Amino acid sequence: MTVSRTADPNVSKPAKVARDMAEPEDAGQIRMGELSELLGYSLKRAQLRVFDDFIRCMASLNLTPAQFSVLLLIDRNPGRNQTEIANTLGILRPNFVAMLDSLEGRELCVRVRSANDRRSHNLMLTDKGRGILARAKKLVATKHEARLNEVLGPANRAALLDMLATLARDF
Amino acid sequence: MTVSRTADPNVSKPAKVARDMAEPEDAGQIRMGELSELLGYSLKRAQLRVFDDFIRCMASLNLTPAQFSVLLLIDRNPGRNQTEIANTLGILRPNFVAMLDSLEGRELCVRVRSANDRRSHNLMLTDKGRGILARAKKLVATKHEARLNEVLGPANRAALLDMLATLARDF
DNA sequence: ACTATTTGATATGACCAATAACGATTATCG
DNA sequence: CGATAATCGTTATTGGTCATATCAAATAGT
Fold first, then answer.
1. pLDDT tens, B60-78?
2. Which of B140, B118, B127 has its CA nearest to residue B78?
């Protein structure tokens, strides 16, 4: 993609507001055209904002959205191997290795060689990992999702979630 | 982020469906846990799908979502400079250079040194660029957005767009 | 005039996505 | 059994995007 996370758009050039005449007549706001009707564009924009807020809310725990989702999934499905966890998150197995290295290096989870199949690793959280995850969940609920509820309202938030799930599933 | 575009998630391991007993009792679906309630997660997932479809719909014209948005913006705001266009799209100026190089190389737009300010380039579409843009808009309307309407329904699509705009604006 | 700022551009680094390939292990099946 | 194929985690590598610092040229401010 291309839409940046920090190059805040529509900064609107507050410099030279209300010009005292004499200029090519434009110099005003830039017209978005049918861009405002493009679902994909708004989708991307909203996603970047939401992720940004998520990261800010998690700053004290230093967890990215992806890391959070991995911890969550391992906690809910202890003993699954890397391929299974990576696949359900849409992460390719090669790229999942470094990610697990990081989490395991922080002692949030462990790889345990499976007894049945000595090729695979059974993944599970450490006590520390469960503690961090619990704190992370609280932060998400009280800071992140709470803010979403403020902006959207509970009903809209639920409706939005439903539509997004529909898109991710049936599109 | 981390969610991949092609590592299709929830492939669900159709191998070994309906096992004839005798297994560690799990081996079934992986539990998503509160991940299904995480707005950011669904947002990302949906965004990747929509962009993927956009790219497929545009395959004949070879336009990415970002390139399409640039052409659209230049068409609606001819004569603006690179900084202005890049900023409103959330693209950083350095990263916008190669993008314009590509579009200009395909003769879809041109940079014209400004007479007033000889530092800046006035951007405008070529005739070819306008032609491509017109065809692109048709493809988006008849293939891409039409499909979104099918899956969501017109009312839901409008509501979704509104909520996403709200998020991108007020969040 | 002198300094500061702006514009487009270059170079570079960090990170993510994607593919191919490898060693170790397990499954298949003739 | 034994050969072949498939799977698991891993490494290496490539291409793409995002971000920062910096530059020369041009302009603005004083």
1. 999 999 999 999 999 999 9
2. B127
